[in-house]
From TrEMBL:
This is Tetraacyldisaccharide 4'-kinase. ATP binds at T57, L58, G59, G60, T61, G62, K63, T64. It catalyses: a lipid A disaccharide + ATP = a lipid IVA + ADP + H(+). Pathway: Glycolipid biosynthesis; lipid IV(A) biosynthesis; lipid IV(A) from (3R)-3-hydroxytetradecanoyl-[acyl-carrier-protein] and UDP-N-acetyl-alpha-D-glucosamine: step 6/6. PANTHER family: TETRAACYLDISACCHARIDE 4'-KINASE, TETRAACYLDISACCHARIDE 4'-KINASE, MITOCHONDRIAL-RELATED. Belongs to the LpxK family. The gene is lpxK.
């Protein structure tokens, strides 16, 4: 879905406030149902440690790049990590191990295909079944992409990822806002918070994010390009949680953007979408460029005509992140 304007606390303040107020009772009911589910569920405990990378809002915060970075760190530390994902947007319910040579985004979702580039990946709507398959396949530790609000699988360590610019939005719960649950409740179950900033120089406003008094580690991170920005005129498009973040990153790296086209998160590109993009690129005499996540969702023939611009999560204090991972592997709760 495309986030409605009233989810943005900086836009449409008067009309947005009225809409949020009208929808707030539904948000309270949504939060109560989630809290009851968590309270009454006895989580399945896997035979290996499980690290969850989740968030408190709907939409993109950078969970998947963070998960991929943690998987790479764990490999560097001598572990055999597996990624675990629900496989949102894919037709397969799992549990199944992702095979990039066999599976498409229509099968397993776009994010698991990206995670499978970093480490073996399992998709499963049933998280305990997915964790068990990972263990059977040889995992020594599991990194679960999303699932902070899913109580079915025991988490040995939980990172909550938040966008340092948009934060918690207006602070209202879905459908009145982007929150999946109250901030206080979500942070209470977290072991650490990762604040994603637009670049390495930006510092988060911890007070605005309600993190200034949090007695848990707070890490600063950002998405850094892992390849040179493509040369020449570019027509960028993206169907992610915050497309503007991708466009801004391209510009900051020196990309010459003729135009930028936004699609909803996890958008499935139709034939008319592709024709429109191709026609626009031709009219601008530009090359098409998109995110890695969008690139894997494109049909194979069209994908070959589109550039991707990969990014990776970078941390201001990677050593402390590694300390957290080492503690989880050792069975020590930090």
């Amino acid at each position: 879905m495309r986030p409605p304007a009233f989810w943005n606390d900086k836009a449409g303040r008067s009309s947005g406030a009225v809409t949020r107020a009208l929808l707030s009772p539904l948000g309270w009911a949504y939060a109560a149902a989630g809290a009851a589910r968590i309270a009454r569920t006895t989580p399945f405990k896997a035979d290996v440690p499980v690290i969850c990378v989740g968030n408190l809002t709907l939409g993109g915060t950078g969970k998947t790049p963070v998960s991929a970075a943690l998987l790479s760190m764990l490999q560097d530390m001598g572990a055999n990590p597996f990624a675990l994902s629900r496989g949102w947007g894919g037709r397969l319910k799992g549990p199944v191990r992702v095979d990039a040579g066999q599976h498409s985004a229509d099968d397993v979702g776009d994010e698991p295909l990206l995670l499978a580039r970093a480490a073996p990946a399992i998709i499963s709507a049933d998280r305990p079944a997915g964790a068990q398959l990972a263990v059977n396949e040889g995992a020594s530790i599991i990194v679960m992409d999303d699932g902070h609000q899913n109580p079915a699988l025991h988490k040995d360590f939980s990172f909550v990822v938040v966008d340092g610019e948009t934060g918690w939005g207006p602070g209202t719960i879905f459908p009145a806002g982007p929150l999946r649950e109250p901030v206080s409740a979500g942070l209470a179950r977290a072991d650490a918070v990762i604040v994603m900033m637009p670049d390495s120089e930006s510092l988060p406003d911890l007070a605005r994010l309600q993190l200034d008094q949090l007695e848990k580690p707070v890490f600063r991170a950002w998405l850094a390009p892992s390849a040179s920005v493509p040369e020449g005129r570019l027509l960028a498009f993206a169907g992610i949680g915050r497309p503007q973040k991708f466009f801004d990153g391209l510009k900051a790296a020196g990309g010459d953007l003729a135009d930028a086209i936004q699609f909803p998160d996890h958008h499935r590109f139709s034939a008319s979408d592709l024709k429109r993009l191709a026609d626009l690129a031709e009219s601008w005499n530009a090359r098409l460029v998109t995110t890695e996540k969008d690139h894997v969702r494109l049909p194979a023939g069209f994908r070959d005509t589109v550039l991707d611009y990969p990014v990776q999560a970078a941390f201001a204090d990677e050593a402390r992140i590694r300390d957290c991972l080492d503690a989880v592997r050792s069975g020590v709760k930090t």
